[in-house]
Amino acid sequence: MPKALVVGAGIGGIASALRLRKKGYDVTVVEANEYPGGKLHAIEKEGFRFDLGPSLFTMPHLVTELFELFGKNSEEHFQYKQKETICNYFWEDGLRFTAASKIDDFISQASKTFDEPHSNISRYIDKNKKKYDLTAPIFLEKSLHKLDTYLSIQTLRSIFQMGILDVNDTLNKTNKRFFTNPKLIQLFNRFATYNGSSPYTTPGIMSMIPHLEMDFGTFFPKGGMHQISLSLYKLALDEGIMFNLNEKVQEIIIVDNQVTGAISTKNTYKTDIIVSNMDIYPTYRSLLRKQKAPEKTLAQERSSSALIFYWGINREFPELDLHNIFFSAFYEKEFNAIFNDKSLFHDPTVYINITSKDNPTDAPEGTENWFVMINAPGNYGQDWEMLKVKARQNIISKINKVLNIDLDKLIITEHILDPVNIEKNTSSYRGALYGAASNNKFAAFLRHPNFSNRIKNLYFCGGSVHPGGGIPLCLLSAKIIGDLVPKSEEYD
């Protein structure tokens, strides 16, 4: 049986390992941390459970199909429920908007709240769906770096309809063409943050991102987001995949432009193929340092990072749900601070995720577990201790104004995660959450492919390579690898 080695046990690495196992490979996963899951991890502190990483769950079929791949009923191993409310939105002037999961309800309520014509919102949502349907088979589900991707009717159809994709306008300009209310424009601009970019520079094609929430739905896994990685890890163990945790790969061995093995802090491996789930930048700088690196790709602008406060709150808030956004009054200036000044804005947009709303055991009775995040620049050597102190003050001030409370007195436990520790814990270059940013129209083509053009049997998965960051795209990167790697009986 041919052997496969996966470097890194993030969600993309685990999914890649499962797909390789299904193709007949003897798979070993080597992970530097003492736990699997990468960013999809969790902690418990003083009776509160916090998901540390991604907090939005969409496209659950990409998880459940991995169980079905092995003939298992996913419901026996992984459960989730659909949310009726996508997100609650708050502005300091007192306006509040609850985004319903049913599209008709969303359109009706948004039209009334923002005084926008019903038809404009409906046309916008319909166009987003069309963008997704045109591009997903090309940009998300296949390698952009293989010729046969472009030799299809679907590709030709997309090319001939490039005008509808709004690639020559920014997301902000695209949204302003449909709406006049600045708050509704801001609401749809925020989706640029789903790939760590700015709505004032990322192309208008990114307006298809809301389609993932509004058409596919948003969900909550039973037991929290951490259950996504834990359930897939258990599936992998059940299928005979070996995990060597607390072991760091130091070098990928290349002989005659072909993978032959790897050296770690504990072992020397001989293997037929290798999949790196490590961020593409440290993969080349550390594991492939003897190989010629794709400097243009590695020099791309990094995506945003995050500053997250995990607070145990000694009170319950019925006006809040699982997902909540408190908007900045100066949105463009906020993104300018993040991407140009590499700093934090004094009036940040605040995201609050509260899993105890759906999983009550995540917090003691009468309390809530708040995951409080603001978008942040990557780690460029800033004074993060000073920035964290100021950010904490600004975040609490904003929440106090909107909810009319004294939040400081309600915080009974605290844990903080900043770009420095995100970089340290996940090997994400500069702490970027999504690898490269998508702040230009060619970003999708500049992402590193899921394979090496020069080194045979070397593959790449995860948020820093094609098709991008976030749980669904990481799972899709693994699916692409599954399509690229030959079955074991075809292996030569």
Description:
This protein is of the alpha/beta class. It is built from 16 helices and 19 strands. The chain has helices at 11-22, 61-68, 103-114, 118-140, 153-160, 171-178, 182-189, 209-214, 226-238, 280-287, 295-298, 331-339, 384-403, 419-426, 443-446, 471-484; strands at 3-7, 26-30, 42-45, 48-51, 80-82, 85-90, 96-100, 219-221, 242-244, 249-255, 258-264, 268-270, 273-276, 305-313, 323-326, 350-353, 368-376, 411-417, 458-460. The strands form five sheets. A seven-stranded mixed β-sheet has the order 7-6-15-16-17-14-18. Strands 9-2-1-13-19 form a five-stranded parallel β-sheet, with helices on one face. α4 packs across α5 (153-160). The radius of gyration is 22 Å and the shape is globular. The relative contact order is 0.19.
Distinctive features:
5-stranded parallel beta sheet, 7-stranded mixed beta sheet, globular, 492 residues, alpha/beta
Rg to the nearest angstrom?
A: 22 Å
Q: Uncertain regions: pLDDT < 50 for 5+ in a row?
A: none
**Mean pLDDT rating:** 93
Strand line-up in the sheet with most strands:
7-6-15-16-17-14-18
Quickly count the helices: 16
Helix and strand composition category: alpha/beta
Approximate strand percentage: 15-25%
First-residue to last-residue Cα separation: 12 Å
Q: Please outline the major beta sheet.
A: 7 strands, mixed
